[in-house]
Amino acid sequence: MAKKKLKSHNINRDWCKGCGICVHFCPKKVLELDAEEKAVAGDTEACIVCRLCELRCPDLAIEIETETETE
User: Fold this and answer.
1) What range defines the domain where residue 13 resides?
2) Residue 30 belongs to domain with CATH number
3) Mind listing the pLDDT tens digit for each residue in 43-53?
């Protein structure tokens, strides 16, 4: 089975209300809130593409884009 590799974190800053739910659920602490209290992806290399941020965002402001990685 092919593994998913992170392509990008697409965060709609207009929709993000800065609740921090995505930050709380991220097991690798990739997401953080910036000075404007909006979600941003910090250490994208640490992302394991679990999609918890995307699934838990109440405002649907996060989309995880992946590409298939063949081994």
Assistant:
1) 3-69
2) 3.30.70.20
3) 999 999 999 99
